[in-house]
Structures are given as structure tokens and as C-alpha cells.
Write a structure and sequence with these properties.
The protein has two domains: about 10-100, Alpha-Beta Complex (Homing Intron 3 (I-Ppo) Encoded Endonuclease, Chain A), CATH 3.90.75; about 110-165, 2-Layer Sandwich (GCC-box Binding Domain), CATH 3.30.730. About 20% of the residues are buried. The protein has helices spanning about 10-15, 65-75, 105, 150-165, and strands at about 15, 25, 40-45, 55-60, 60-65, 80-85, 100, 125, 130-140, 140-150. The strands form four sheets. The chain has a three-stranded antiparallel beta sheet. With about 180 residues, the chain is an alpha+beta fold. The longest helix has 15 residues, at about 150-165. The radius of gyration is 20 Å and the shape is elongated.
């Protein structure tokens, strides 16, 4: 067995995890900077998106995302796949808020991009035809949902397509800045 891989037993000797609140706390002083009872990890944003925050911690000289440690703590092994925060809050590590998904399912629970001008993901203004364009990406296929004179019609069609394609109800919600 590889000694560099953290096990459930090793993790449980270092931290406690409340699966209802999502809080992971140190139960030992793992270093001079770690205090017993302190929250495990520091808030870090992802490399590709400065608005998504997660707790990250270093244990045995290896960096871990705390939501992945929650799965190890409860299930005895690291998740095989992407851990999605159902409510979109990367700091909410309640076990009921975590699920293992593939890339497509994770994208279907994505927040609205900050450069969005219509207020709805998949609805943009087309200068070429002076109408609102609705579209959706289902797996790898981009589906054109038409040009519409009314933004309300374009949004309604886009929302119907989200249901049809199985998107999460949280898809396209506002990004919340965490400080």
C-alpha cells in the first residue's frame, strides 16, 4: 500500500466531521499553526474560476479539497469522479449537499458567467438579426433554440430546454462573491 495515500483511519485520527453541518474540525494539533477545534482547510478559489471557493488543506505534504475528504471520512475511500456541491456553494460540505457526478452533470449545475448580459444562461442578444437568441448545450451538441423578438420568450424557451435536457434547477444562478 502506498504510504502517501491518506486512509480513512488516518483521517479520523486527525479530524472530526459533522455530516449534517459539513464542518470538519481538527482534533489534534497537526502543526504549530493548527489549533485543536479549528476548521480544516483554508478558503481557496479554483485556478479556472476566481468566483468558486472551496476549502483546501495539506495533509502528509499533499493538498486535498476538503469536500473530497468528506467522502473519504464517510465512505472509506476517495470518490471516483467529480464531487458536485448541489447548492452551488463550494464551502457547504454537508454530506447531503455533495454528490459524485460526471463532467456533463457538473456543468448542468453551473453558475451563470459573470459576463452574461441577458441575466439568463443561454440567452444572448444577436446584433446580426436584432433579436434575442436562445441556445443550449446538451452533452457536446450545441442546440439553437431560435431567435426571438422578446427576451421573455427566449428565456422561457431556454428554461424549458433545461428541463428537457435534465439540467439542475440551480443551473444559471447568480455567482455569489465570497470574501
Amino acid at each position: 500500500m502506498n504510504r502517501d495515500i491518506l486512509t480513512q483511519d488516518e483521517l479520523k485520527k486527525l479530524v472530526s466531521y459533522n455530516r449534517h453541518t459539513g464542518e470538519m474540525k481538527w482534533i489534534v494539533a497537526a502543526s504549530n499553526r493548527v489549533k485543536i477545534g479549528a476548521t480544516v482547510g483554508t478558503k481557496r478559489n479554483t485556478k479556472d474560476n476566481k468566483h468558486n471557493y472551496y476549502y483546501r488543506v495539506v495533509i502528509k505534504r499533499k493538498a486535498y479539497l476538503v469536500h473530497r475528504l468528506c467522502f473519504l471520512y464517510v465512505n472509506g475511500e476517495f470518490p471516483d469522479g467529480i464531487v458536485d456541491h448541489i447548492d452551488g456553494n463550494g464551502l457547504n460540505n454537508s454530506f447531503d449537499n455533495l454528490r459524485i457526478v460526471n463532467v456533463m452533470t457538473n456543468l448542468r449545475n453551473a453558475k451563470r458567467y459573470t459576463n452574461n448580459t441577458s441575466g439568463t444562461t443561454g440567452v444572448t442578444w444577436s446584433k446580426q438579426v436584432n433579436k434575442w437568441q436562445a441556445y443550449i448545450r446538451d452533452n457536446t451538441k450545441l442546440i439553437h433554440l431560435g431567435f426571438h423578438a422578446s427576451i421573455d420568450v427566449a428565456i422561457t424557451i431556454r428554461k424549458a430546454a433545461e428541463c428537457w435536457c435534465g439540467f439542475n434547477e440551480n443551473h444559471g444562478r447568480l455567482r455569489i462573491r465570497v470574501r
